[in-house]
Design a protein that fits this description.
It contains three helices and no strands. It has about 60 residues and is mainly α. The chain starts with 14 loop residues before the first helix and ends in a 5-residue tail after the last helix. Pfam families: Catalase-rel.
Length: about 60
């Protein structure tokens, strides 16, 4: 059976994004990201917002 790629220990849903924010973004870019996420979630109901903040599906 063929597979699309070989899985690696660092393959997960958060690793690349976390490395980008921690190791690539500067303080201004991190602040801009947070502002954008907050603005994007302003119309979301509270239970879904809580799940999203915890990284869970709504």
């Amino acid at each position: 059976m063929r597979s699309a790629y070989t899985l690696h220990a660092d393959d997960d849903d958060f690793g690349q994004a976390g490395n980008l924010v921690r190791n690539v973004f500067n303080d201004a870019q991190r602040a801009q990201l947070i502002e954008q996420v907050v603005a994007s979630m302003s119309g979301v109901r509270s239970p879904a917002r809580f799940c999203a903040a915890r990284g869970e599906g709504a």
